[in-house]
Design brief:
This protein has about 450 residues and is α/β, with parallel strands linked by helices. It has 17 helices and 17 strands. The longest helix is centred in the N-terminal third of the chain and has 18 residues.
Amino acid sequence: MGSKRIATIVDKLEDTSLSPARKRSRFDPSLSNENCETWSFLKTTGLDGLSDIGVGPLIGDSPEDSLADTFPDFLDITQPSSLKAQAERDKKLAIVLQSTLSKETLHKLSANEWEKLLLCRPKRDVVYKLNHFQQLSDEVILHIFYWLPKRCLKVTALVCRRWYRLSQDESLWSRMDASHRHLDPGALGNILSRQAIILRLAHAKISYPPFLPGMKAYSHEFRARLLFLDLSMATIDPETLTMLFSKCRRLKKLSLEHVFVDNNVLFALSRNRELEILNLAMVEGMSQEGFQHLLTNCRKLKELNIAWTYINSQCVKYICTNLPSTIDRLNLSGCRKCLSDESVLDLVRSCPNLRELDISDCTTISCNSIDHIVRLGNLNFLALSRCYFINYRSIVLLKEIKSLMYLDIHGGHIDQSEIDIVQKNLGNQVNINKFKFSSIARPTVGPKRSTIWGLRVRD
């Protein structure tokens, strides 16, 4: 018990409304026997009969005051049985000390002097500490760990061997968001070793090499469980991408927007035969040879975005001719002079079930392309922004597409009066210039950045 505790008790006592302890003693004849007389401090006994030996009431006290005094006359200083009883005893002893010592003296008492005044040091009960987590099953602890942030899981792994083993469980790392982070060499390998399924690496800076000796992902036989991967705007070199895709065989949705690639990257990517959504917007370094491997093996594609990739006309023609028939959303905007009316015809033949088509900024296609597009009976969305050789009279022919709901013709080459004519002919069910940007194959749309393709990246 230290001096700090003494000061706390004294401060509490200064606010108490109880009066100092009365210094009176009484004699209790009921406790006497034949041989001796026993002293007592009970309030029910008066001082009659003791006047002859000099015992009497204090000056200023009356018998009525003596009977009305409810303050304890004496205190039990025996060994307390609990910490609560010890605290009560210390408080009572401090009250007695306050009545006999001045406040200055109490403040000057040291810890050792206070211990002597209390006569005995309290004996504290031995508390056996139990590890309640040791009584829980692995399933319960994993459920608790599931609600912890990923950064806290690294700390829990340092507690004990069991927690380290549980913290490495694959169910805790199925969703990961490492966007806007700098990944040191080997960091990407650690993520893949934990078998993440949904991974967001947008705007991340990934260092080479991605895998280091000793980790699971370094093994040649290792196969990642990645299904959904967002590498939009990531800083990553083609060699690291090739090593990453060589570990993947189950990718379903992938975004490489604004990432530099080469043919080796597309070769490794083509092994993911279950690929359904691919975003290659603004990707540089692609060639016809790489697309040949990609479109030959990935025949389950449903959404493809190759906007503003600056590929040549031969590559564009090859893509339009060899696209799988499963594609229902396609973005070919920004092809400039590489997309021709003949390529549009090949496109319609390859993908007859298209629901969304964006061929904005293709400046060489003419009104003849409209004659081909009207064959798409399931088309819901069509973007023809800045296609300067297509006039409003040709656009009116789109009324033959009964399923059309959205039409974008931004660019100023069609004035408002002509847009009104188009609206009148197409009907009110068609919304004109509703969207400024395409969402085809993009992982995130709008301000929300906690999901990719509608899937949460954080638990």
